[in-house]
Amino acid sequence: MTTRWGIAATGGMAATFASDLALVPDAELAFVSSRTPGSAADFAARFGAAGSGTHRDLLGAGVDVVYIATPHPQHHALALAAIEAGIPVLVEKSFTATLAGAEEVVAAARAAGVFCMEAMWTRFLPALAHLREVVAAGDIGEPVVVQADFSSFRPYDPASRLFDLSLGGGAVLDLGVYTVSLAQHVLGRPDTVTTTGTTFPNGSDASAAIHLSYADGRAASLVCSLASSSPGRAVVLGTGGSIELVAPFFSTTGLVVHRNGGEPERLDLPPTGRGYTHQVEEVQRCLAAGLTESPVMPWSDTLDVMWVLEECLTQLGVSVAEGQVEV
User: Fold this and answer.
1) Rounded mean pLDDT of 242-248?
2) Residue 325 to residue 79: CA distance in whole angstroms
3) Lateral strand order in the sheet of 89-92
4) Which of 95, 161, 240, 323 has a beta carbon 3.0–4.6 Å from 73's, enabling a disulfide?
């Protein structure tokens, strides 16, 4: 059975997603929406969507699920509107701009019994799936430390979405979310968050060093920045060894397992396409099974990650808010 997808937005993330969607045999791009119908029409023609229009048009287009790829502060309103219309949603990360906004979306999905998932595509890559298997098998003992960095230099431009706080700009929501989500996935919700960093002239966060502490001594050391670049390394340290994700970890093609006293074992596990196909397959599997949330990216994980991100921004003195979208 073919799943009819709608995409809300026409930017770079939407284009990457649409390209990978075409690689999933039982997925179809049925409708594209934008605040400007002309942009939606151009995108639809480019990727072969059957229809296009405004976000309001999307809600009545008869799609099976909507992928929301607008700037972070617009996720909240669009997700709520789709859920109210009974349409399942895949919401780009960061899930919302605020923890309160995320809690409201999750509560709405729970009350309506509508599927909702954060689009943390990295969790569904073959290498991450194997990491879970290695950890579950006890091959590296108990995980105790996660180290990860994601930094990408971008010339400062206060007019760009990446730096505009009204559009959810800044390093933490755009890049830090990957490192925090990985740490949360392996170690769970931390007990304490400590963040130091720098800001751009307009007050948006330029860089952040994030330390997650757990009462039992486990920890995560995370770094993100828009002011410089880094290799994108990630390592999970356990009591019996470690797992190193092939850099950059957020789009990793494999991993190296180091068991204490043994030789390193490298496994090449490349993704299909750019890697977004795997989260599409997860959404469709969940919908076919009648699930309202993914067991790999459950609502509780999304809320834990949003709590950490908000703690980081608060400690950096950065304030963001949910935006308004006409739907």
Assistant:
1) 98
2) 11
3) 51-53, 27-33, 3-8, 65-68, 89-92, 116-119
4) 323
Structural domain containing residue 236: 126-270
How does pLDDT run across 248-266, given as a tens digit for each residue? 999 999 999 999 999 999 9
pTM: 0.97
Residue 264 is predicted with a pLDDT of 97
Per the CB < 8 A criterion, the answer to whether 131 and 245 are in contact is: yes
Q: pLDDT per residue over 159-208, tens digit each?
A: 999 999 999 999 999 999 999 999 999 999 999 999 999 999 999 999 99
Query: Looking at the domain assignment, is residue 313 inside a domain?
Result: no
- How far apart, in Å, are the Cα atoms of 2 and each of 52, 83, 106, 281? 19, 21, 26, 12
Does the pLDDT of residue 1 top 90, yes or no? no
Q: In total, how many domains does the chain have?
A: 2
Asked if residue 266 lies in contact with residue 254, where contact means CB atoms within 8 angstroms, the answer is yes
Whether 218 and 82 map to the same domain: the answer is: no
In a domain, residue 323? The reply is no
Structure tokens at 50: 């059957």
Please tell me the number of Cα atoms within 13 Å of 85 on its side-chain side. Answer: 22
Mark whether 231 and 211 lie in a shared domain.
Answer: yes
Residues 6+ apart with CB under 8 A from 272: 20, 23, 278
Of 312, 311, 94, 93, the C-alpha closest to 198 is 312
Q: Looking at residues 110-129, what average pLDDT do you find?
A: 98
